[in-house]
User: Which sequence fits this backbone?
């Protein structure tokens, strides 16, 4: 089991590892919106404030978006592209 | 949501300026990225290939989407159905779901071009207009794939086109019951007023993409599940039916369209001067209108947000085809059971509607100039299981009367 802290919602959930954040958030609704759910729109931009190493590597399509949307932030990710491998804490990036 | 509207310090980075236009730098970059990725993808081409080689018999022995996405799912007819009939109901759900989606695709084809009419003369939005052109041609391919597979499926299963719907024009497609065809000029007039405004006002044009975004997101909530189903089959090395793959590729194609909707509706409008009262009115008319297309639940086709009045006569006909072989009396009784009493299908419908409403409300959080009824999506929020059944009981009574005449 892994622990995910959603800072904006002050909510912590415990789930099985190796699930996508999209599936986890469908199961445990939070305020984060997923738009296209495929790394194209950037709606689900987040900052991983703890445990960045516990998320699957950045995908190529995600990199294109992050280069424009959060080029100076190494903790930025698109939630729809993330598989959770260990404990993390995240918040929405505005 | 990210503020992509990082305005250039002195002069805008690209484009010829018209009065009051200030291009957001990040917007233009993101539009460029989205356009490049869309034109280099081959999802539409894959859909066309699947459509061209589709033969129902080759795919008939498999579920095409998760079983909960089946026509009449959870109803007494579904519970009593054989395995083969359950698969047929699953395939007919796919047909109905995408026939419903065709309305959105048709309006998109037209409004993409209309909004280009408002954006292009401003200068600086050439790539955006090219992206919208690409999306229009993709929408046309989507419609053709849905209709080809849907019609073949109906002919194979029912020997007739029962659920196939006439292609609507863009005004009809924007209405609540497009299956019924054109209404009177007066009743269509809000849609016509809206269409005119979208073609001339950059602000109203940008807010059409709030309308489109709301429809994109409600579709995503369900099609994400279809896409997952496809990926699970692929991962397991199992046979992937062509319609399952079509759903998956459509989902991937629509991701680019969702990105376009997001960028234009949430950020691009900040490029333009403040809207007039008339422009604010027109953009809210559009959002009010799209809410009305999502204000009910279907127990027959869980996952689409239209009421069941149109499906009652169609299901009655379906039950009398060789697929179910009922006589008129049995079919009428079954229709009453499926539409007028609570069953699991209504709960599935309610669950997806709740998710779509929640996502759509988040989508509206950062859109300006909304009427409260639109910001809170109060019309869409009216959908409820009990009102859906109550409405079906009335529709069923009216339908029953037409039979006894």
Assistant:
């Amino acid at each position: 089991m892994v622990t995910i802290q959603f800072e904006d919602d002050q909510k912590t959930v415990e789930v099985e590892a190796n699930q996508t954040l999209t599936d986890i958030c469908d199961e445990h609704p939070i305020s984060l919106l997923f738009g296209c759910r495929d790394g194209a729109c950037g709606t689900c931009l987040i900052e991983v404030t703890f445990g960045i190493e516990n998320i699957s590597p950045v995908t190529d399509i995600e990199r294109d978006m992050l280069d424009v949307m959060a080029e100076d932030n190494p903790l930025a990710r698109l939630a729809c592209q993330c598989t959770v491998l260990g404990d993390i804490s995240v918040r929405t990036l505005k | 949501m990210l503020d992509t509207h990082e305005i250039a310090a002195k002069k805008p980075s690209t484009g010829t300026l018209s009065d009051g236009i200030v291009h957001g730098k990040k917007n233009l970059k993101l539009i460029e990225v989205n356009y490049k990725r869309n034109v280099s993808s081959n999802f539409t081409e894959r859909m066309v290939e699947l459509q061209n080689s589709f033969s129902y018999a080759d795919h008939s022995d498999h579920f095409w989407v998760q079983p909960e996405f089946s026509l009449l799912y959870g109803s007494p007819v579904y519970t009593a159905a054989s395995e083969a009939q359950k698969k047929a109901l699953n395939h007919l759900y796919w047909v109905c779901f995408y026939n419903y989606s065709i309305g959105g695709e048709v309006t998109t084809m037209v409004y993409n071009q209309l909004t280009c009419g408002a954006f292009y003369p401003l200068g600086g939005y050439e790539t955006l207009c090219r992206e919208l052109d690409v999306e229009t041609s993709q929408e046309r391919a989507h419609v053709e794939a849905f209709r080809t597979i849907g019609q073949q499926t109906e002919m194979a299963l029912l020997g007739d086109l029962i659920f196939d719907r006439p292609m609507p024009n863009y005004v009809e497609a924007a209405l609540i019951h497009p299956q019924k065809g054109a209404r009177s000029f007066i009743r269509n007039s809000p849609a016509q007023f809206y269409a005119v405004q979208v073609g001339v006002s950059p602000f109203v044009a940008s807010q059409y993409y709030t309308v489109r975004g709301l429809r994109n997101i409600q579709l995503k909530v369900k099609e994400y599940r279809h896409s997952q189903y496809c990926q699970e089959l692929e991962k397991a090395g199992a046979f992937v039916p062509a319609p399952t793959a079509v759903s998956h590729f459509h989902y991937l194609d629509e991701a680019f369209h969702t990105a376009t909707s997001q960028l234009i509706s949430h950020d691009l409008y900040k490029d333009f001067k403040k809207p007039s009262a008339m422009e604010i009115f027109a953009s809210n008319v559009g959002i009010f209108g799209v809410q009305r297309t999502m204000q009910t639940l279907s127990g027959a086709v869980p996952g689409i947000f239209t009421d069941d009045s149109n499906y009652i006569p169609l299901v009655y006909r379906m039950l009398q085809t060789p697929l179910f072989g009922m006589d008129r009396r049995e079919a009428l009784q079954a229709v009453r059971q499926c539409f007028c009493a609570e069953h699991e299908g209504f709960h599935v419908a309610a669950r997806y509607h709740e998710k779509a409403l929640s996502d759509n409300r988040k989508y509206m959080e950062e859109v300006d100039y909304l009427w409260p009824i639109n910001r809170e999506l109060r019309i869409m929020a009216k959908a409820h299981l009990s009102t859906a059944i109550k409405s079906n009981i009335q529709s069923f009574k009216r339908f029953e009367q037409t039979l006894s005449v």
User: Anything to note?
Assistant: The first strand of chain A starts at residue 2 and ends at 6. The radius of gyration of chain A is 12 Å.
